[in-house]
Fold each of these.
Amino acid sequence: MIDISKLFDPYSRQARLFPGLLTLFPIILTAIAWFPRLVTSSWGATLVTIATSCGLLYGLSVLSRSRGKKVEKRLLAEWGGWPSTIWLRHREEHLPPPVLARYHAFFVKNVPLFVTPSPEQERADPKAADAMYASGVKWLQERCRGKAYPLVEKENAEYGFRRNLRGLKPIGVAACLAALLISVLTVVWRYDNIIPAVSSFSMSALLAALAAIKPAAIGAICVDLVALTAWFTVVRDDWVRDAGDQFARALLACCDTLEVPAAAQPASSGKRPRRASTATGETRSRQTRSEGGES
């Protein structure tokens, strides 16, 4: 039995591996339902072990991430930026004005060279304003990682899971359709009476023919139909955006709890300006991961 906890860290399992496994789940379930010896036979277990050893699970997680990153570019263009940046804008209404002012004040106090754009400046040059907000978010994100910030880590993994699953949606839909096709062809091949029962338009004959099909196969077909429905009704752009907003809420809330050592705070404009410049360089060197999700 493969212990995936030894192959992937918690974030990679939830945000990268699980979306890939869910995408292939209809195919796997259908194969097991119609060919149960794949599970009980020793060669089936050997095949799984060899595939895992050859990097199948790792390749699946890489595919999941790459597909998610691809769809993320489109989503960010449609949203107008990262949710955590959007939430800091004056013109947005995600945060009450007092809370927004408190977060801006936190960044001014702690982030080197951060100057809160006024509403007028934001309207005149929205790109420059967003760049300033993004610098504050990046600074905050680098200091709110790890087990000390469980809610941020949880929402970050949730966003990664939804984003990657959205990226895998075309493959997931194709997998469901393929699984249903396999089931239909297998039913026609194994049960000769199913076609005459359907052609007769007799409900009793149809029910009798369906009763002959083994329950595991019927269950697999039902799961495939539910999965296909979920791909279209649940895995949507707004589903990903909701996770992005939840991550933004959790990350920005750290402004009220994060304790920044006095030595790490930028120097005031009238005192030792070189220190602010040095702190800025150190902060930039740590900004290596993307905002709002995995790198």
Amino acid sequence: MSAAVDNRTEATQRVAVATSMPRGVTSWYRLRQVLHAMMIGSRPMILGYWAIMLIAFAVGGFIVQTVSGGTGYSTWDYGTQSPKYFSMAVGIMLAPAYLKLMVAQGVTRRMFSVASSIFLVGATVATALLWVLVYQVERVIYDWQGWAQAMENRHLFTSTSQVGMIFTEFFLLIVAHEAAGWLLGITFYRLGFWRGVLLLPLSVLPAAATEFLLVAEWLAEPLSRLSYDRPPLAVAVPAVAVVTALGLYAGYLLLRPMALKPAKG
């Protein structure tokens, strides 16, 4: 009786997996292996980047603040641009670095696309959480030293105590830039240099749309001079999610018919 129940439970789990993932992605083990390979392969680059960022903006910023007696601004806030473009680079390298190897090992393009999307979203969550954490650590240190922590850039949040808004802003910006990088890497990898250049406006659309929908960080000031303001967040946030998801799906559609041999430029 117990064995029959166990068999029914396993069958139910298999059906749930098959219905919750795109058709053909039914092997959790293989999906985990693909994700593991992406994590191992990307780890040196990601850890090296964040080590430099933490030293330059967190440690270096504290030294600058100590020497100057407090500048009145958050040092960490000056580093908000770099993670977006680094995350775009992470998205760019996925297809050229892993696709040929994965397909040669029997991984379908559909599974590779799903694994890449999961990897990028996971990296986004980790980045946004790290950004929240460093802002909080900086706030504690600044309060202890009696320094002001004003924001140099415009954000969805007005104070570093607004943890939810900090996470939301950086999650949306990072994941949109990763989706744009994903499209850039695939278009250049499949179509070659010149056609990749021609498709640049479409490839960067997720990142560009997100910048104009959120109006945060460096772009906020130029847009404010044009009397342009962000739409309500109830509109902007779902719109960013839709544009990003479409960007990831467009990458899959480009990958699906692609041969293993990369196109010539």
